[in-house]
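Final report, closing paragraph on structural work. Over the funding period we assembled a curated collection of sequence-structure pairs, and we close with a single example.
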Amino acid sequence: MGPIDFLVQNMMIPFLTFSYEKIYPNYGLAILLLTGFVKIAFYPLTRKQFEQMKVNQQIQPLIKEIQEKYKKQPEKMHKELMRIWKEHKANPMKGCLPALIQLPFFLAVFYTIQSAAFTELLEKPGVNPGLFWWSNLTAADPTYILPIIIGLTTYWSQKYMITDPKQAAIFMFMPVLMFFVCLKMPAGVLLYWAFSSMVSLIQQAIMMKKAKPA
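Its predicted structure, as stored:
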């Protein structure tokens, strides 16, 4: 059994079933509760990711200065960059680590929504298979509301995280790309993704407000 299958069978399906039977009989709401649980569990990692992002932003001028100064001396450049990262306790890969750790949970939700086990839960007599205007969480969102939300949250997340105008120009197409990627995805997956993105934006706003000036 792979890690994704393990999460699907031992966390996702049991959590959704428990939420439906013990909290409120609606699987759309169960997905929202699952999202909140995952975001709370990973908040310490999210905070670390934000702190590392701020450090990387603060030392960016120093990095550019070193790259320009030693562009014809790659070994010297590497040595100086290592010194800067060490002095400021920065690591370019640390900012990616929390996202990589959370990726299996997103994939597990994706496979859960499309699994036979979840379909069986939705097909039980008297089960409410949707939420609000989404009558079927295993089908695409016919209103495009969730893809739009994901596109907008992608845009605002980039506004927080990318301060370099050149990088911002490179990634400006990402919100549009995310919209089109989401058009055919199951509404249950998009519900998890959209709510998770909105919670992340709120967390970022709170952490930015509390962050000390550089």
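The first helix runs from residue 3 to 23. Residues 3-210 form one domain. We thank the funder for supporting this effort.
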